[in-house]
């Protein structure tokens, strides 16, 4: 995906354009207002909706984020299937509530503001009043949508699942080689400053809360299961292609996800750099997963 193609039918097709139009309509915004919200030039949005320009993966991610849908839904019309990555259980994704467009936008603004504040300052340091101020509303409005702060935190965890899911669906299909796909999958989840580091902060806090009974262990495990299953799926695909060793896929998936989790915590606490984390994970993949000499495989994964 990506780039303009004068008069050429995009691979994404008319169905995707129709779903984007549906998203715009459900927000209750004018097309130019929606373009501003997703940071896209109005002319480019118009060309994409006419079929003379393709939506890029990054644009689809931004559309899904603003509209409160998943990239998987934009591409396929469903959240029940996805080729490159495991699909979250419905309960692991942000709740869809039938409501008027302005209520939906306000709910989304509250969740995004809370997610960012929780990630950057920690659950206990954030007040409902802080979330209200950051989302441009009042505390009573926040409590209208979410009766308790911990309920809003669990919605923030579901929001983190959606963000990671969207990134993976948008770009994993562009990488054909199983080894490069696994490397790219890992790169997509590195806690680089910005969105992914904020996601990691939410995850770290959810693990801590679940460990002491401050949030549902079932909800936390359900959210984490999708990440584990995505790694599992990538390793299984590599084994089927003969690229990875024929060790039990459950063991390899557990070892790799545990390594990623532990190194990610070190990055968040300042004990390790993101680049060193990436190097350690690459070394593990080459040493423990790759069938045959890893040095002979080209390192062309996305950075």
UniProtKB/TrEMBL annotation:
Protein name in the entry: TetR family transcriptional regulator C-terminal domain-containing protein
Keywords: DNA-binding, Repressor, Transcription, Transcription regulation
Ranges where the HTH tetR-type domain occurs: 104-164
SUPFAM superfamilies: Homeodomain-like (SSF46689), lambda repressor-like DNA-binding domains (SSF47413), Tetracyclin repressor-like, C-terminal domain (SSF48498)
InterPro entries referenced in this protein's UniProt entry, alphabetically: BetI_C, Cro/C1-type_HTH, Homeodomain-like_sf, HTH-type_TetR-like_transc_reg, HTH_TetR, Lambda_DNA-bd_dom_sf, Tet_transcr_reg_TetR-rel_C_sf
Extent of Basic and acidic residues compositional bias: 93-103
Span of domain HTH cro/C1-type: 31-74
One Pfam family cited in the UniProt record for this chain: TetR_C_6
UniProt-listed SMART domains: HTH_XRE
Protein species of origin: Brevibacterium daeguense
Protein's UniProt keywords contain DNA-binding: yes
Entries under Gene3D superfamilies matching the protein: lambda repressor-like DNA-binding domains (1.10.260.40), Tetracycline Repressor, domain 2 (1.10.357.10)
Segments of the chain annotated as binding DNA: 127-146
Keyword match Protein transport: no
Disordered as annotated region, ranges: 79-103
Top-level division of the source organism's lineage: Bacteria
